[in-house]
């Protein structure tokens, strides 16, 4: 029975197998090794689109329902909620299953093999401090693999897979720390290189915090106030005012929650807020975003702004968030110094989680020879700074940001 290695990420998914002991990534998209973890239920063609095609349909303004970041919902009650999509009653486990089933079919078409088993990555912790939810998340994910047609699924901690893929980055005897900062979680593995392609895993640890939380924080800080978050609403009677409730704005800034806002209740609530708002113009933007289902377009705009702010240097022209979907040519400033300050608290939590990993193994920061950065959000300067502060003597090695985990999984999936 052939086994497919699958890194099912919050933002991106990849698959691979080993050929002659060398990891081989399977092209799941025409030209890319990774597939956006996104789906689009197209209401016109009645098709379910996956990956880049899903995001393209959303950005082209096609009529339908887009979802990204579904991994964040594993272990929550929302996973078992059913909704009617393209004439079928589906829960989110079905939706994840269809995504995984497409990965399976594409991998089979690309390799000419049949994959009945999967070796899947998993974050060390799906939910930081909630053991019951954590256990439930794994049950949900197992069920999704089963419904996708895999008769067997095993799991490997994502940072341990990255350690396997990067074992050559260490000299024999060296101590390495994998720092895998993804879209939804930050995961760490402390390991020692034993030589001859063997490593000892000493400790793994993780928290529920990743790039989508950076997006959320920037959106709440910069975009949501323009939609009326924190603004005053008059009482229906009398002259008193209260602040607009935060819930809608928080959800609108959270990738996985956006699809839940497109129902009549939220719409009514937003229309009421607009009616009594001291600044009705702002709340009118909220109503427009809900009406025209622009939540994901905003999230993409914030993510793009985050990456531009991170890529540039102080002194370059300050980046902006393109909010032209709200008003032609409109932008919101996103000064680099503001971004750094805004995200520093989250980066500190990531640094603290790295230290916690050492505690599990009863080791000190000075003993770590190398930091191995993987995951898209390890490219964030605030993350690198928080880690280098704590491990000033460690050399930094950058693994393949988006594919180190799947390479490690693939190593364990010899073909045929
Ligand atoms: N150049 C970049 N600079 C900063 N952040 C980036 C860059 N490229 C991608 N990202 C961020 O990296 C995140 C995705 O990383 P990655 O693909 O490693 O996550 P994932 O594996 O899907 O998620 P997880 O492992 O948490 O489930 C996104 O939040 C994205 O915005
Ligand atoms: Mg990942």
UniProtKB/TrEMBL annotation:
InterPro entries: ATPase_NBD, Heat_shock_70_CS, Hsp_70_fam. GO terms for molecular function: ATP binding; ATP-dependent protein folding chaperone. SUPFAM superfamilies: Actin-like ATPase domain. The keyword ATP-binding applies. Keywords: ATP-binding, Nucleotide-binding. The keyword ATP-binding applies. Belongs to the heat shock protein 70 family. This is Hypothetical chaperone protein.
């Amino acid at each position: 029975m052939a086994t497919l290695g699958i890194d099912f990420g919050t933002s991106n998914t990849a698959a691979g197998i080993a050929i002659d002991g060398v990891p081989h990534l399977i092209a799941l998209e025409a030209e890319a090794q990774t597939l956006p973890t996104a789906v689009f239920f197209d209401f016109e063609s009645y098709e379910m689109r996956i990956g880049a095609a899903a995001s393209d349909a959303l950005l082209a303004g096609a009529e339908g329902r887009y979802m990204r970041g579904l991994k964040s919902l594993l272990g929550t009650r929302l996973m078992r909620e059913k909704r009617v999509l393209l004439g079928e009653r589906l829960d989110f486990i079905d939706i994840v299953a269809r995504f995984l089933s497409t990965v399976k079919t594409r991998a089979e078409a690309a390799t000419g093999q049949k994959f009945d088993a999967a070796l899947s990555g998993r974050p060390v912790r799906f939910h930081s401090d909630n053991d019951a939810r954590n256990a439930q998340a794994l049950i949900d994910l197992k069920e999704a693999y089963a419904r996708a047609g895999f008769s067997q699924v095993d799991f490997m901690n994502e940072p341990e897979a990255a350690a396997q893929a990067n074992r050559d980055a260490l000299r024999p005897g060296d101590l390495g720390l994998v720092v895998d900062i993804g879209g939804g979680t930050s995961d760490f593995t402390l390991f020692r290189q034993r030589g001859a392609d063997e490593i000892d895993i000493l400790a793994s640890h993780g928290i529920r915090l990743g790039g989508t939380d950076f997006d959320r924080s920037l959106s709440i800080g910069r975009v949501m106030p323009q939609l009326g978050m924190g603004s005053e609403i008059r009482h229906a009677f009398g002259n008193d005012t209260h602040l607009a409730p935060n819930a809608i704005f928080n959800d609108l800034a959270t990738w996985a929650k956006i699809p839940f806002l497109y129902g009549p209740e939220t719409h009514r609530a937003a229309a009421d807020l607009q009616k009594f708002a001291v600044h009705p113009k702002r709340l009118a933007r909220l109503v427009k975003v809900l009406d025209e289902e622009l939540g994901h377009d905003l999230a993409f705009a914030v993510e793009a702004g985050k990456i531009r702010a991170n890529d540039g240097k102080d002194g370059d022209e300050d980046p902006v968030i393109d909010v032209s979907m709200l008003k032609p040519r409109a932008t919101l400033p996103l000064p680099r110094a503001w971004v750094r300050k805004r995200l520093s608290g989250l980066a500190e939590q990531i640094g603290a989680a790295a230290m916690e990993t050492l505690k599990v193994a009863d080791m000190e920061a000075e003993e770590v020879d190398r930091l191995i950065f993987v995951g898209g959000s390890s490219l964030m300067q605030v993350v690198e700074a928080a880690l280098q502060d704590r491990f000033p003597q460690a050399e930094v090695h950058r693994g393949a940001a988006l594919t180190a985990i799947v390479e490690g999984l693939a190593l364990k999936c010899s073909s045929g």
